[in-house]
């Protein structure tokens, strides 16, 4: 069962973004949004929970192919930036790139 104790705290930054950006985080604001302290904290939390790539199994520690937290529902498809960790997955940079490329071409 996912830990939902902090869900409201995680939604507060998203509500601030929605207030200033409309209903969705605009494409031009994604890179800025990913630099927020709230996203960094959430990303670190997810990578601690699952310290390996959920697709290829690579463990954390390879500096040439680091792990990242990935939204299961991307922002480009209406996903929220700050979500509970069960709505994220841990991926290595290579697998994340493959998924992103596939999404853009389909």
Structural commentary:
There is one protein chain. The protein is mainly α. It has one domain. It has helices at 7-21, 30-33, 37-49, 93-105; strands spanning 67-71, 88-92. Strands 1-2 form a two-stranded antiparallel ribbon. It is globular, with a radius of gyration of 14 Å. 16% of the residues are buried.
Question: Brief description of this entry?
Answer:
With 106 residues, the protein is mostly helical.
Can you give keywords for this protein?
globular; two-stranded antiparallel sheet; single chain; mainly alpha; 42% helix; 106 residues
Present the secondary structure layout.
Layout: H1 7-21, H2 30-33, H3 37-49, E1 67-71, E2 88-92, H4 93-105
Antiparallel strand pairs: 1-2
């Amino acid at each position: 069962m996912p830990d939902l104790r902090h869900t409201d705290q995680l939604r507060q930054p998203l509500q601030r973004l929605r207030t200033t950006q409309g209903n969705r985080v605009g494409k031009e604001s994604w890179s800025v949004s990913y630099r927020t302290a709230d996203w960094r904290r959430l990303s670190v939390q997810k990578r601690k929970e699952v310290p390996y790539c959920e697709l290829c199994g690579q463990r954390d520690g390879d500096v040439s192919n680091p792990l990242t937290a990935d939204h299961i529902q991307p922002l480009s498809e209406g996903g929220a930036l700050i979500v509970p960790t069960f709505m994220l997955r841990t991926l290595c940079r290579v697998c994340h790139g493959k998924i992103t490329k596939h999404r853009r071409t389909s």
